[in-house]
Each structure stands twice: as structure tokens, then as C-alpha cells.
Design brief:
It is a single chain. By secondary structure, the chain is of the alpha/beta class. 42% of the residues lie in helices and 14% in strands. Strands 4-3-2-5-7-6 form a 6-stranded mixed β-sheet, with helices on both faces. Strands 1-8 form a two-stranded antiparallel ribbon.
Amino acid sequence: MSVSTNNIHWFPGHMKKAINQIEEKIKNVDVVVELCDARCPLSSLNPLLEEKIKNKPRLLVLSKSDLADEKIFDSYNDYFLSLNYKVIIGSFKDNKFAKRIASLIVELGKEKQQKYIAKGMKPQPIKTMIIGVPNVGKSTLINKLANRSAAGVENRPGFTRAQQWIKVSNEFFLLDTPGILPMNYEDKNSATKLALVGCIREDILPNDVLFEYLLDFLKEYYPDALLDRFKIENLNIEYDEIALQIAQTRGLKKGSDFDLDKARILLLKEFKDGLLGKMSLDRII
């Protein structure tokens, strides 16, 4: 599976500003929590952010596990542990998940607290920065940890535009940051995966490109999904023929003709919403 478009650019002005602000504030941060989508954790790691956070204690949170293929979680966990990342996988639909993250933040901040105590100072709240690509659940995590609507939440990439410190408890503060993507993606497959899970705005890549990539992926890893959802038995046919069968199954029409564009959009939406089943786009080889 590959994407044959040119380099994919997505770097609005607010992201450039956010990168600069992160660079300014990281020196005063004790712990970094980086969120990735459990369906594509490798693709949603941001090299720009990796460079900025450097050697800070860091927790990698793989969110939206309820939409991902749990059979390959062990490979993700082993891979990130091999890089000395502390990693946790879960879903914010599980109320215990945020509590587990809070415990790990306190654990990662212990060294800084001990330094305060060694100097005869009162322990200070752990300053924790939340980073990640757009629409991965940062604001949801903050609201769960703060137990209130402290950060705006909307299911679209690029919603959070400003940075703000939020007091969670006497133990730690959180710094919310906007979702940030690399300036461009030389690895077009990574950008395509992020578009499929909703971390890149849908108009950045054409629907037909996403549709064809998704079909190739489903044929290789989850061939029964199209049969179960759309009664498509033969996958060795042209992309447009599959789109036509989806349109026929769902009665998607434009005038008297079946609407292939609506069929493509429907498949993309049902994948993103988890209606095709629990699936993961990244594979650890």
C-alpha cells in the first residue's frame, strides 16, 4: 500500500506558534505526556515534538484503544519499551484509564519532588505538558484528570489553538497545547493513516486516495470486514466496482444513478468510527 501524491503539507500558523511556545516552556516542565492514536501510534508520533521534549520524563499514552486491534497491542508495548518509553494503552471511555495516567504522572515527577525535599523546600505541583497530534484526545484527558470541563473538546483536528495551565490537584498542573503535525510528510503513508483516523483534516487528501488506500489495507489485514459490513465477497475487483457495490448495498444515489463518492465517504467514516471492527493501521515488523 502506498500513496502516490506529492509531499503532504499541513502546517497552519497556529502550529508554528505552538511549536515556539513549547520550546520556550519545556525548560520549566517536569513531565511530558504525549498522546498517540492506538490505531497508528508510529504514524502519530511527531518528530518535531520528539526533538523539543528531549530528555524530559515522558509518558506515551496510546488512546482510543477501543477502536484498535488489541491483538497487536503487545507488539506496540514491546517496541516502545525497547526505546525506554513508559507507555500505557487505553480508552477514555474507561474512567479508570485517566486515573492510571494520573498515577504515572505522579510517579514520573517523583525525582523532581525529591530534589525539592532535599533542598528543604516544600514539594511543588508537578508541571505536566500534554502534547500530541490533532484530535487524539488531549482535551478529553485534561477534562478527565481535572474532573471538569477545563479544556474545550471537539471531534475535529485543530480545535485547540492556545496553551493554558490547568490546575488538576495539589499534585500536578497540566499545560494543554494545540495538536501539532510535522511541517510536511515525506512518508505519505503516515499522513494517509492520520487522515483515516481523523488527525488530519479530511480535505488535505482526496477521498478517492484515502478510499483506495483503505481498501488495500482491508484486503491485506481484515478481508472479512467488507463481507460482514457490505456483503462484498470478491475483493479482486476494481476500486470503483467496490464503491458501486457499497452504494448499491446502502442505496446511495444521486438522481437515478448510484453515487460512488457517497460510497467512498461512507466507507471512510465507518472505518474512522470503528464500525468496520477494531483495526490498527501501523504494524511493528
